[in-house]
Design brief:
The chain has 491 residues and is mainly β. The chain has two domains: 249 residues, no CATH class; 174 residues, 3 Solenoid (Pectate Lyase C-like), CATH 2.160.20. The protein is built from two helices and 37 strands. The chain has a 16-stranded parallel sheet that branches. Strands 1, 25, 26, 27, 29, 31, 33, 35 and 37 form a nine-stranded mixed sheet that branches. A hairpin with a 5-residue loop joins strand 8 and strand 9. The radius of gyration is 21 Å and the shape is globular.
Length: 491
């Protein structure tokens, strides 16, 4: 279902998970890893790469596969159990092919890990192997994916090659909230649950602008949103599986019925979308950020019949922020007309980041996390249009914040262009869990015509700083703007 909001605010308790789409997705600090791999040398084609900081790995096809395997495995070993840790990573693959049918590249993705191709099309980066997420097992040997949050996979092709994997043959993406898959072409079978260990519970996820050329096992997934994609088959539903603009989706079947399976909520097209911006390297080895164009009443991927339509922005027009930067420093860059890339890490903010210029892009790498330390709003977006925020965690600080992210001024009148909407992609909110945090509201949308594309607002029910009167929260999301559309709103 998509939600088109009018002026009435939407209030939700943060522990209730809802899927909403119509009316009703380098180099690492050695001290952070035991047995950390040595630093990667830049290939000649990427020798002029920007300084994305110590927690971004950039792999090239000329690197020995054994070196790449060692590095991704070391990061996975640290991050798989690191649910509330401070480490953040981006694993970026330059255009080319990695692995072969006889020597594939297979690796697991843990918490706070972004895996992405650096091509302009998903076909520019090919992985012969698999990139996977499995259940986590506790001391009682109960194995589930209910807590497999905060990780992502985007902008590449996977030729599924899993020899000698036994039960784990295929592409496993056993995740729950805040674990999007975008612009991925999977050639082979894929499962969204890990059925190799039990009880195998999983709780919802998000796929967009992707093509899966193989059977998809939904299995125990309680809810799932798939938007603007191409699929071959879908096994089953549990609570509600939502398809918007998906070629090959099962027919509408809600509530579940013996005649059609389900429960499925199926829309032939998505009313208005804009895919998430992404980092890529052009033929000259130059880094850019691509901002896809707005689509209306669309179905399928943006890249099926040619290049994705949109606008390319040179990396020179970005300020590359590091976690040591203050909000004042980032605001200076924004005031000078720069866009912003937030490199992996935790940003402690004593004042709000202010986004005021139309068309500004704020792109997070490796689940960059913003923490308001002084009871401030972490980020405020002015009453403007065309702003894009993506790949960011807003983590409540120890002092009560009125709001974590505000989009548009209060009492806004007619701002927010229909032709150039502000968009939020893979923007996640957390109150408690990593530390004691408090916020009255997580997200407030005052602007009109905003697109919300994979949002999770969570009041932690486990972790650090968790208690009835400890990590307090009132409302997950409030929408005051007109014509706001949400896909995959988990609150």
């Amino acid at each position: 279902m998509f939600f088109s909001f009018l002026r009435s605010p939407v209030r939700r308790i943060a522990l209730v998970a809802l899927v909403l789409v119509a009316l009703s997705a380098a180099i690492i600090v050695p001290a952070m890893l035991s047995h950390a791999p040595s630093a990667l040398a830049a290939s000649p084609a990427l020798a002029s790469q920007p300084n994305f900081g110590p927690n971004v790995f950039i792999f090239t096809p000329t690197m020995p596969l054994s070196d790449i395997q060692a590095k991704v495995d070391a990061i996975a070993s640290q991050q798989i159990p690191n649910q509330f840790g401070q480490q953040r990573y981006a694993l970026l693959f330059a255009p080319g092919t990695y692995g072969t049918s006889t020597a594939p590249l297979n690796f697991q993705v843990g918490y706070y890990t972004m895996v992405a191709g650096l091509g302009q099309s998903p076909g520019d980066v090919v992985i012969n192997g698999s990139i996977y997420v499995r259940n986590q097992c506790d001391a009682s040997n109960s194995c589930i994916a209910l807590n497999n949050f905060w990780r992502s996979l985007s902008n590449l092709t996977i030729n599924v090659t899993t020899p000698n994997f036994g039960c784990y043959s295929g592409e496993f993406w056993a995740v729950s909230q805040a674990a999007p898959m975008r612009r991925v072409h999977v050639n082979g079978p894929m499962t969204l649950m890990d059925y190799c260990t039990s009880p195998s519970f999983a709780s919802g996820g998000f796929i967009a602008d992707s093509q899966i050329d193989g059977n998809i096992v939904s299995g125990s997934q309680q809810q799932w949103v798939t938007r603007n994609s191409v699929i071959t088959s879908w096994s089953n539903g549990v609570w509600n599986q939502v398809f918007a603009g998906v070629t090959g989706a099962p027919a509408q079947c809600f509530p579940a019925q013996s005649s059609c399976g389900g429960p499925y909520t199926t829309l032939a097209t998505s009313p208005v979308t804009r895919e998430a911006p992404y980092l890529y390297v052009d033929a000259g080895g130059n880094y850019n950020v691509f901002v896809p164009a707005v689509q209306r009443n669309s179905a399928g991927t943006t890249w099926a019949t040619g290049a994705t339509q949109g606008t390319s922005i040179s990396i020179k027009r970005f300020y590359i922020a590091s976690p040591s930067d203050s909000a004042a420093r980032i605001n200076d860059a924004l005031d000078s007309g720069k866009n912003v890339i937030l490199t992996p890490g935790i940003y402690h903010l004593k004042q709000s980041i202010q986004v005021e210029r139309p068309g500004t892009v704020v792109l997070g790498l490796g689940f960059a996390t913003l923490v308001p330390d002084n009871g401030n709003v972490a980020m405020k977006v002015d009453s403007t249009h065309g702003v894009s925020l993506s790949g960011i965690i807003f983590d409540a600080g120890p002092r009560l914040s009125p709001t974590l992210l505000q989009v548009g001024d209060e009492h806004e009148d007619n701002h927010g262009a229909t032709t150039d909407p502000t968009t939020l992609h893979d923007v996640f909110f957390r109150i408690g869990g990593a530390q004691q945090g408090r916020a009255t509201k997580s997200l407030v949308v005052n602007s009109n015509n905003v697109i919300l594309d994979d949002i999770w607002a969570w009041r932690a029910d486990h972790g650090n700083g968790v208690g009835w009167t400890t990590n307090t929260a009132d409302t997950g999301v409030i929408v005051n703007g007109n014509n706001v559309t949400a896909y995959g709103l988990f609150v």
